Amino acid sequence: MRGEKKTVKLSIVGFGNVGGSVADLIFAKRSALWRDFGLDIKIVGVADAKGVFVEEDGIPAEKLREFRAKHRVAPNTDLNAVEMIDAVEHDLVVEATPTNIESGEPGLTHILTALKARRHVVTSNKGPIALHYERLMRLAADNGVQLRFEATVGGAMPLISLCLENLAGSEILSVKGILNGTCNYILTRMSEEKLPFEHALREAQALGIAESDPSQDISGEDTAVKLVILANAIFGMNASPKDVSVQGISEITPEALLLAKDAGYTIKLVGEVSRERLEVAPRLVPKGDPLDVKGTLNVATVKTDIAGDITIVGKGAGPKEAASAILSDILKIFA
Ligand SMILES: NC(=O)c1ccc[n+]([C@@H]2O[C@H](COP(=O)([O-])OP(=O)(O)OC[C@H]3O[C@@H](n4cnc5c(N)ncnc54)[C@H](OP(=O)(O)O)[C@@H]3O)[C@@H](O)[C@H]2O)c1
After folding, report:
1. Does residue 128's CB lie within 6 angstroms of at least one atom of ligand 1?
2. Mean pLDDT throughout 149-174?
3. Which of 33, 69, 225, 322 could form a disulfide with 151 if both were Cys (CB 3.0 to 4.6 A apart)?
4. Is domain 6-155+319-334 annotated with CATH 3.20.20.70?
C-alpha cells in the first residue's frame, strides 16, 4: 500500500453515462482502493440538470443505483450544482456534464467554482479544457489544487499522462493518431464490406456507436477539439479549435477505399499535433502500420527525441472507459 490511509470526499456533477459509471466503479473497487491505496472514497454529492442530492457522510450505493436506474437524481436539497460545489465540504469534483465547444458551459462554471473553492477537479468534459486551458490551469495552481482531464482524449488510453508523466525528460515531437472511434468504425465497415458512407453511418447509429447527431464526429471537429487539448497540455501552444485545419470523412467513397486497398493502404481519419501542424484529415495509412487499427479502437503514436516512437491502442470511448481514466486521475491526486 502507498501513502497514509485517508478519506476522500467527492461530488459528481453530471450524473449521466460517465458520472454514473464513476460511481459504479468507486463502489466496485472499494475494497481494492482501501487495500492498495489506503483510500476510502465517499461520494457526498451528485447533480444532474434537474437537481442535487447531498449526504455529507457519503451517499449509499443503493441510492446511487436507484438514480442510475431512473436516469435522474431525486433531489434532497434546494442547492443547484454550482451552489453544491461551493457550499458542501469536499475534496474533489468529478465534472461530467455535456461537452459544449462554443461556450464550455455549464462545465466551465462548475470547474471555475470548484477551483476557487480549492477543490481538485477531474473532468471528461472537453469544452472547458479546449477553450480555457491556460486560465483554468493557472487558477488551479494559484489555489493549490489539481485539474486533471485524461478522460477528455482517447477514453481509456492514458495518452496525456504518457506524454506528461511517463515520458518526462523526452521531448515530445508530435502526436498522431485516431481519436474518434465512430469515424474509425464507419471507415472500417466501408473498407471491409464495401458499404457506402451513409449505410455504415446508419449501422453505427443502430449499434449505439454513433450518436443520433453524429455531425461533430464525422466532420472531424471532435478530433480537432481533442488535438487542441493535446496542443495546449503537451506543447503549451495556447491553441483554440479555430487553429485546427479540419477535414471530415463524409466525402470518402467505398471506391476510394478499394483503390487504397489495392495499393496496400487503408484510409483513416488521422489527427496530428506538433509545433508546426494542427490537422485532422483522412490520410492513407499503410496496411499493418501501427495506426491501422479497426472498429471503434483509438490509437496514438507519440514521437519523441530520445525514446523514439511509442504507440498506444485502446478503447477510445464508452462510459466505463472514461470512468477508468477518471479513477486513475483521482488516484494520481490522492494515492
Ligand atoms: N460517454 C462517453 O463515452 C464519453 C467518453 C469520454 C468523454 N465523455 C464526455 O463526458 C461528458 C459526459 O458524457 P455522458 O456520456 O455521461 O453524457 P450524458 O449521459 O448526457 O450525461 C450528462 C449529465 O450531465 C447532466 N447535466 C447537464 N447539464 C447540467 C447542469 N447544468 N448541471 C448539472 N448536471 C448537468 C445531465 O443531466 P440531465 O440528464 O438531467 O440532463 C446528465 O446527468 C461529456 O462532456 C462527454 O463529451 C463521454
Report:
1. no
2. 97
3. 322
4. no
Active site residues: 226
15 lines ligand 1 (CB under 6 A): yes
How many Å lie between the centroid of ligand 1 and the Cα of residue 102? Answer: 16
**Looking at ligand 1, which atom is closest to the CA of residue 15?**
43
Beta strand 172-178 with 265-274 is antiparallel
Q: Pinpoint the residues of the chain covered by CATH 3.30.360.10.
A: 162-315
Residues of the chain with CATH 3.40.50.720: 6-155+319-334
pLDDT above 70: residue 89? yes
Residues 162-315, CATH architecture: 2-Layer Sandwich (3.30)
* 147-148 β-sheet, strand order: 52-54, 39-47, 6-13, 92-95, 120-123, 147-148
- Each residue's pLDDT tens digit, 251-304: 999 999 999 999 999 999 999 999 999 999 999 999 999 999 999 999 999 999
Q: Rounded to the nearest 10 degrees, what angle do helices 30-37 and 17-28 cross at?
A: 60
Q: What is the pLDDT of residues 114-144, one digit of tens each?
A: 999 999 999 999 999 999 999 999 999 999 9
Average pLDDT value for the chain: 96
Instruction: Report whether residue 254 contacts ligand 1, using a CB cutoff of 6 Å.
Output: no
End-to-end CA distance of the chain: 9
CA dist list (Å): 320 to 171, 229, 292: 31, 21, 24
What is the residue type of 113?
A: T
